[in-house]
Design a protein that fits this description.
The protein is mostly helical and about 100 residues long. It has a single domain (about 5-95), classed as Orthogonal Bundle (SMc04008-like fold). Helices cover about 70% and strands about 0% of the residues. The chain has six helices and no strands. It has helices spanning about 5-25, 30-40, 45-55, 65-70, 75-80, 90-95. The radius of gyration is 16 Å and the shape is globular. About 10% of the residues are buried.
């Protein structure tokens, strides 16, 4: 594997993150509970991690602003447009495997 300098590594990670966010914005059919049940994280987790990273660098970012960065619109709008009711099977799976994030 070729050596990658620090700046290039950060740029590659940022590009991969932007692509992930774009992909999730386009896959509105995939519900957060599905992501949580399968992968242990969701769009809200990404927004929390984004906010944490901002705060570590002295940037104040409230919860709603961080969510809007990830969702590409206010969270309330996304929910109204795309969120569906999770059935009992999905809710039970979520409660059984509820991840504990750092």
């Amino acid at each position: 594997m070729a050596e990658i300098d620090e700046t290039t590594r950060i740029e590659l990670e940022a590009a991969a993150f932007r692509r992930l966010v774009s992909h999730l914005r386009n896959r509105t059919d995939v519900q957060n509970i599905d992501l949580m049940n399968l992968a242990g994280f969701c769009r809200n987790c990404l927004s929390n991690w984004y906010r944490d990273a901002a705060e570590e660098r002295g940037v104040t970012l409230d919860k709603e602003a961080a969510r809007e960065i990830i969702y590409g619109m206010p969270y309330s709008d996304w929910r109204a447009l795309h969120q569906t009711e999770a059935g009992p099977d999905k809710q039970a799976a979520f409660e059984k495997a509820r991840p504990k994030h750092d």
